[in-house]
Request: fold
Amino acid sequence: MNRPLLFLDVDGPLNPYAAKPEKHPDGYITLRVPQDGGTPDGRGGLLARRRPLRVWLNPGHGRALLQLGYELCWATTWMDDANRWIAPVLGLPELPFVDFGDALFQDRPDGVHWKTDPLVDYANGRPFAWVDDEQSDLDLAYVTSHHRGPWLLRHVNPRIGLRDDDFRALAAFARSLDTPQAMD
Reply:
């Protein structure tokens, strides 16, 4: 059987961006990621350069993620930029990513997060876990009714990021897939 997918969001689970701004959480390092350009001044120049984006990452998370038995996949607005900026700090290889295309940041009338449908489509019935800080009960309901394989949605507090209990839950889900399930 193929390994299950683990869809990884960056901001929230890996980068606890909502933590107290004056101090990064224990075990985390600070990465400064340049942001594109600045603000156009109307004459072809820039009024001001944008400050680099502060990202907190725990280098130990990469090893822990690789040991879970999943096929890792970026599920983040960073898309392929996560391979350039995030993966090296965590010690991860280049990972596939979900290209959200036109769904990126598009509000849905049903309240389901804009990532949910593209992730279900990407998984295509394959078992998956998804760690994110923006999931809701509407996403749970959507995945329940639209995904035909096993799944786990793991909400992560963006003030603290991934913790040991998250890794235990992910490991338990992956192990559960190795156990024959009783038929209803």
In short: The radius of gyration is 18 Å. DSSP finds six helices and eight strands in the chain. The beta strands are 5-8, 29-33, 38-40, 46-49, 53-57, 71-74, 128-132, 151-155.
